[in-house]
């Protein structure tokens, strides 16, 4: 495990003039510590940027160093898909007697493939990163959230996916891992009901990041294009907002979330709704591809 942090980080206190220059609300948040997984990726990097701008200090748990220079960002290199690496990083944070304000789970992965053709390693890697890692990390770091003793609320935020409430043929294990994560978050919220910790989940539909580009190159679902893929900054804004105004569940776009949950009230109706959604998705995908060939910008997917 490697821990890298700019040398000034340890000198940064809530009273630092640099932090006091920020707006008053920011100054109140100054010095509060957030552990963020997936901080080097499309959504996570933007969440990290927002948190830093809001005056938080961020510990980034991911394999590669986030492309962000800030004295308030510490990178703890960690392979969350490896239980040993995860336990070592968590042990490091606990040994430091870190007091946490929030834990945000954003790391995730998808490897589309019909189950019959999938490789065992790809299936277990998706479950390890999307489901096992957030469960283990929550358990390891919960004492750092509960031991704050300042009476203020602490937060756990999960970045999930619309796939948690909508079956995704060709990505069944991804969908199952995200559905399991939803169930974990709702159960955890019940357990922590009487504590000062809130539990929130953000469920985005498709988002314009490298993950979506890779997914579509590997034969991802056309359902990703039923709505126009989201701007990752919109998702990041919603994730960061959970530390100020927590909600148990936020779906982006909201209408897609309502539709997905209605479908799951009577899954037998999926045989009627999915062909319609599939056709809309194929239309949306063709439009996105046409835009790429016009603009040459593959971020347009
Ligand atoms: N993009 C979408 O269309 C979409 C839609 C719905 C939900 N989501 C969810 O949003 C979250 C973020 O997605 P994204 O689009 O930002 O993905 P991304 O750009 O591919 O970034 C993924 C992040 O996860 C980290 N990660 C991957 N494998 C890891 C491992 N073994 N150990 C530690 N960290 C690992 C990566 O960091 P390193 O590689 O540096 O380790 C990176 O920071 C995921 O949970 C995803 O399921 C995405």
From TrEMBL:
Residues 1-26 are annotated as: Disordered. This is Short chain alcohol dehydrogenase. Pfam families: adh_short. Keywords: Oxidoreductase. Residues 1-14 have a biased composition (Polar residues). Residues 32-216 form the Ketoreductase domain. Belongs to the short-chain dehydrogenases/reductases (SDR) family. The keyword Oxidoreductase applies. It comes from Asaia krungthepensis NRIC 0535.
């Amino acid at each position: 495990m490697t821990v890298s942090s700019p040398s000034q980080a340890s000198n940064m206190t809530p009273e630092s003039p640099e932090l006091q220059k920020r707006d008053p609300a920011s100054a109140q948040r100054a010095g509060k510590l957030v552990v963020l997984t997936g901080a080097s990726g499309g959504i996570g990097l933007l969440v990290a940027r927002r948190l830093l701008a809001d005056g938080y200090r961020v510990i980034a748990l991911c394999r590669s160093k986030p492309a962000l220079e800030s004295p308030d960002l510490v990178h703890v290199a960690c392979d969350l898909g490896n239980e040993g690496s995860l336990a070592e990083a968590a042990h490091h944070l606990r040994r430091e007697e870190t007091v946490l304000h929030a834990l945000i789970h954003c790391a995730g992965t998808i490897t589309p493939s019909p189950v019959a053709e999938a490789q065992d390693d790809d299936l277990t890697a998706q479950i390890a990163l999307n489901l096992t890692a957030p469960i283990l990390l929550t358990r390891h770091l919960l004492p750092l959230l509960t031991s704050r003793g300042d009476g203020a609320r602490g937060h756990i935020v999960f970045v999930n996916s619309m796939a948690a409430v909508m079956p995704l043929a060709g990505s069944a294990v991804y969908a199952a891992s995200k559905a399991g994560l939803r169930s974990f978050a709702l159960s955890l919220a019940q357990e922590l009901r009487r504590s000062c910790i809130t539990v929130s989940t953000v469920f985005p539909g498709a988002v314009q990041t490298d993950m979506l580009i890779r997914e579509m190159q590997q034969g991802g679902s056309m359902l990703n294009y039923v709505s126009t893929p989201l701007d990752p900054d919109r998702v990041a804004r919603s994730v960061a907002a959970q530390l100020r105004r927590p909600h148990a569940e936020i779906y982006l776009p909201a209408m897609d979330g309502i539709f997905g949950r209605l479908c799951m009230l009577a899954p037998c109706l999926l045989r009627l709704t999915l062909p319609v959604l599939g056709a809309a998705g194929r239309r949306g995908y063709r439009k996105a591809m046409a835009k790429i060939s016009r603009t040459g910008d593959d971020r347009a997917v």
